Amino acid sequence: MGIVNVTEDSFSDGGRHLAPEAALAHARRLVSEGADLLDVGGESTRPGAIRVDRTDEAGRVIPLVRALVEEGVTVSVDTMRASVAAEALDSGAALINDVSGGLADPGMLRVVADHGCPVVLMHWVSPDQYRAGAGGRADYGGDVVTSVRDHLARRADAAVSAGVDAGSIVLDPGLGFAKDAADNWALLHRLDVLIDLGFPVLVAASRKRFLGSLLSDTSGVPRAVADRDPATAAVTALAAAAGAWAVRVHDVPPSADAVRVTAAWAAGGVEEG
User: Fold this and answer.
1) pLDDT (tens digit, 9 = 90+) per residue, 40-76?
2) Which residues are part of the catalytic machinery?
3) Nearest to residue 19, comparing CAs of 2, 35, 42?
4) What are the strands, taking DSSP E only, across the chain?
5) Which of 13, 144, 196, 210 has the fewest CB atoms lying closer than 10 Å?
6) 0.85 exceeded by pTM
7) Collapsing DSSP states into helix, strand and coil, what is residue 71?
8) In the chain, what is the straight-line distance between the N-terminal and C-terminal CA atoms, in Å?
9) In sequence order, which residues have a C-beta less than 8 Å from that of residue 126 and are 6 or more positions away?
């Protein structure tokens, strides 16, 4: 899943693809590099980001969705607004990626159900649930893996109750969202716990802070965001080996290569040429 941020302030590439021409060129490049689908978003979800107006979000996303669909690209739309999701689906989008798991907008699950499309439900903790003084980390009761698993199971149940086909649900542990580095590594280490829920699992670790912290230099300065793609590819290889459905990445070629290597390893090798 290639990332197309049509935003001003996303943590990795905010502003670089805000212009329609730049966004379309970037999207085409990701497809040419091996992305199976593109995740288009018009609103940053980085910590501290201010929500954009609904009109602005739709204005950034919908024309790009239409252009890509016309070119035969499979498009996912990263939005927490039911109205934007509905307009995107009517414009040809194939999937909705809601980082709130349907909690930010009570109409989201109904929109997904009415359109009969797949949906990614991410583990999400609203800001008022963050533990005071924990730097944005939520309180997981000492077991982040169980807490995230149970939350996602409840969101899947809510989606099915709203009419969403269980076979159309994808789960995302929400790496970096109200979680510290230890939480993120624990979730990656136990992806099997989430996969055992019976739904495809999306891993979105690309360029995130916990990778930068892991690769800090001798002075403790985190690796620059733009230099975290090799680490992202390593996560991709391990996620693929663990059975993840997809990875959401900024830089496609290293992760696409990592998936091919993982598949060859699992198959005991492939013929060259």
Assistant:
1) 999 977 666 667 889 999 999 999 999 999 999 999 9
2) 208, 248
3) 42
4) 2-5, 38-41, 75-78, 95-98, 119-122, 169-172, 202-203, 246-247
5) 196
6) yes
7) coil
8) 27
9) 103
